[in-house]
């Protein structure tokens, strides 16, 4: 974990596809790039920013989002998300995230992720039972 430091950054770019629409997600009634798709792209950028700096067998999981969706994006337009690690508190990582389409900033906010040992996490999950 000593390589995970404030300032790590990553960007991810994609094209808004019909599967990403608010109508498809059920999160809205207009065929535009959805908030859930934007949030997923932001999370992916945050994960990418630290993945290569984690020990083998470790990854991160999202634990908190505080996101604003600022502007609509038509299906077919390029979108990108940027993430910057701004705080490390033990295994809790806080990222500043932003999203843009080809015309403007479409989203911004903070995202927290937690560093986990994948094997231990999955073992605990597999032992989870219905009460």
Structure write-up:
This protein is α+β, with helices and mostly antiparallel strands and 131 residues long. The protein has one domain (9-126): Thiol Ester Dehydrase, Chain A (Roll), CATH 3.10.129. Helix content is 23%, strand content 41%. It has three helices and five strands; from the N terminus they run E-H-H-E-E-E-E-H. Strands 1-3-4-5-2 form a five-stranded antiparallel β-sheet. The longest helix is centred in the N-terminal third of the chain and has 17 residues, at 35-51. The radius of gyration is 16 Å and the shape is globular. The termini are far apart. The mean pLDDT is 95. Substrate binds at residues 62, 113.
Number of domains: 1
What structural class is derived from the secondary structure elements?
A: alpha+beta
Which topology does CATH recognise?
Thiol Ester Dehydrase, Chain A
Unreliable residue runs: none
Broad CATH class: Alpha Beta
Largest sheet: 5 strands, antiparallel
Q: Can you tell me the CATH superfamily?
A: Hotdog Thioesterase
Q: In what order do the strands lie side by side in the largest sheet?
A: 1-3-4-5-2
Please tell me the overall pLDDT: 95
Beta-strand content estimate: 35-45%
Order of helices and strands: EHHEEEEH
Compute the number of strand runs: 5
Total of helices: 3
Core attributes:
five-stranded antiparallel beta sheet; 131 residues; alpha+beta; Thiol Ester Dehydrase, Chain A; globular; 41% strand
Helix and strand topology:
Layout: E1 9-15, H1 22-25, H2 35-51, E2 58-69, E3 78-89, E4 92-101, E5 105-117, H3 118-126
Antiparallel strand pairs: 1-3, 2-5, 3-4, 4-5
